[in-house]
Amino acid sequence: MPSRRRTLLKVIILGDSGVGKTSLMNQYVNRKFSNQYKATIGADFLTKEVQFEDRLFTLQIWDTAGQERFQSLGVAFYRGADCCVLVYDVNSMKSFDNLNNWREEFLIQASPSDPENFPFVVLGNKVDVDGGNSRVVSEKKARAWCASKGNIPYFETSAKEGINVEEAFQCIAKNALKSGEEEEIYLPDTIDVGTSSQPRSTGCEC
């Protein structure tokens, strides 16, 4: 009989304002997309339950504002993160160039115990715009950057069309598992029947 323990996994989404962070989160959690752009003020989060190998996990996805004046809010929201998602717009070189700043900012604010191995995932969003004709950041360039930072998993997405969103967040959840197993929430009125100590594969084939 599988354990009914539930683990909370905290995921932070970072990137410049307007790259589609909120849209990606809403597409994944609610299967919805809005053409009306509304800047996130401060931070917001959505949750979604996911299941891996008979275990239930609650993915808590934090969407932080891209505007610099809200970055001072960072510390409280970054701490305890299990995975960080870096998002840029494939049609904006500036948003791609800023990925390094967002990554460094996260490592400073979150202070993970093992920064060298902390799981990041990079999403190149808005691949649907203008049929791909207006993109300025090539997939090759993005993958080279990810490789230089320790082979970060990379996905090209469209929050509007739902392209690769589900696959990307499955990878994000698997990567979060690598650092998020210790924070378990026990469901009420259940008996812990014990779990196998067998190691579980959480590798992400992306």
From TrEMBL:
Q: Where would you find the membrane-spanning parts of this chain?
A: none
Molecular function (GO) terms for this protein are: GTP binding; GTPase activity
Q: Which UniProt keywords apply?
A: GTP-binding, Lipoprotein, Membrane, Methylation, Nucleotide-binding, Prenylation, Protein transport, Transport
How is the protein disposed in the membrane? Lipid-anchor
> Could you name the Gene Ontology cellular component terms for this entry?
plasma membrane; vacuolar membrane
List locations, semicolon-separated: Cell membrane
Matching entries from PROSITE patterns are given as: RAB (PS51419), RAS (PS51421), RHO (PS51420)
**Keyword Nucleotide-binding listed:** yes
GO biological process: what's one of them? Answer: protein transport
Task: Please give the function described in this protein's UniProt entry.
Answer: Protein transport. Probably involved in vesicular traffic.
Family assignment from sequence similarity: Belongs to the small GTPase superfamily. Rab family.
Q: What is this protein called?
A: Ras-related protein Rab7
**Organism in which the protein naturally occurs:** Salix dunnii
